[in-house]
Write a structure and sequence with these properties.
Its main location: secreted. This protein is α/β, with parallel strands linked by helices and about 350 residues long. It is about 25% helix and about 15% strand.
Length: about 350
């Protein structure tokens, strides 16, 4: 759920990826995590992110015959907790920018073109159209300020079964995006994940719905989940970059949201596009490019980015705003790529 470089990767990265895929052991893509992840079986059950780093010709992303989102995609958002108006605007404008046709190059819609390359077993491509659907505000923390992976599904159930303005049920092209505010604690948040995607259990929600959760890390771990706009205290000498929209937590969320939407589109039921032989270790198209935002990226280096006149750092343009969004893996050229790649 939350990761890459170009074809000219250093040899040691290629070797690292080979070891990963042969052993199917989970490793960490470059984020400044305070400790390594464990409990992979738990992650499989409730939908954990898989952190891999590095790209090479040895990575074999395969299609496992499951469905992908070829119908128009509608993102239904649940705003859990207290959100400022401008924070919502930043995230809405990013989602609206995915299908925008007139954005300045390099654009968010150009980034999505790599996702569109993926197909289902009939040869149909991922939909080009991604738009905002209905939204639900849960400002009174209906399920408390501490959520588990399982209780998140109860939050979604509350949203789709609400007596007033329930979120529509759209199992074909609907994605359900649960966003938690900066004062909400979530199981494994900050120590192991910044977000993840999975699907709801019919026994809880009544339907199988692809969903993702992403948290605002501004108060809890900006140095991890809002990196590189914040850096942890235990990495001295590393200077944070200026965020493009003036909100470190939300600007950090945007890249994680992009990561999850790309993987939901290509692997909504965890049986479509992923690398590795075992679905308990699904290395997905964004996992392979964790921490890669520009040409030359790899390890702790984000790659070549743009600096605006205001000093903010970004790598692609939306309708009205700029964003820093990680790249995704292209199975056509077999490496991570994005609209700001210097070889395009």
């Amino acid at each position: 759920m939350l990761r890459g470089c170009t074809r000219r990767c250093p040899a040691f990265l290629a070797v690292t990826v080979v070891i990963i895929l042969l052993s199917l052991r989970e490793v960490i893509g470059w984020r400044p995590w305070p400790h390594n992840r464990t409990n992979a079986a738990h992650d499989l059950e409730f939908g954990g992110s898989k952190k891999y780093e590095g790209s090479s010709e040895f990575v074999h992303l395969k299609y496992h015959m499951g469905p992908v989102l070829t119908a128009d995609i509608t993102v239904h958002t649940i705003w859990y907790g207290v959100w400022e108006r401008n924070q919502k605007k930043i995230i809405r404008e990013f989602i609206n920018s995915i299908s925008a046709v007139n954005s300045k190059h390099p654009s968010v819609s150009g980034w999505w073109k790599t996702v569109q390359l993926y197909t289902d077993q009939t040869g149909a491509n991922i939909s080009r159209t991604v738009h905002l659907g209905a939204e639900k505000n849960d400002r009174f923390y209906s399920h408390g300020k501490s959520l588990t992976r399982l209780s998140m599904q109860s939050v979604i159930k509350s949203a789709v079964t609400a007596k007033t303005k329930p979120l529509p049920l759209n199992p074909q092209g609907g994605l359900y995006l649960l966003l938690t505010s900066s004062d909400v604690r979530v199981q494994d948040f900050c120590g192991q994940v910044c977000g993840f995607h999975y699907f709801t259990f019919p026994s809880i929600v009544g339907y199988t719905l692809p969903y993702a959760w992403v948290g605002n890390s501004a108060k809890m771990c900006p140095g991890v989940c809002a990196y590189p706009f914040a850096v942890p205290d235990y990495i001295p000498g590393l200077k944070p970059l200026k965020s493009p929209n003036g909100d470190i937590g939300v600007d950090g969320m945007v890249s994680v949201i992009a990561h999850e939407i790309a993987e939901l589109a290509t692997n909504p039921l965890v049986n479509a596009w992923y690398a590795g032989q075992d679905p308990s270790f699904p290395v997905e198209i964004a996992d392979l490019c964790e921490g890669i935002y520009g040409t030359g990226g790899g390890g702790s280096y984000t790659g070549q980015l743009f600096n605006g006149a205001d000093g903010a750092t970004f790598n692609m343009n939306g309708i009205r705003r700029r964003f820093l969004v990680q790249w995704v893996w292209s199975h056509v050229v077999n490496y991570c790529t994005g609209p700001n790649a210097l070889d395009q």
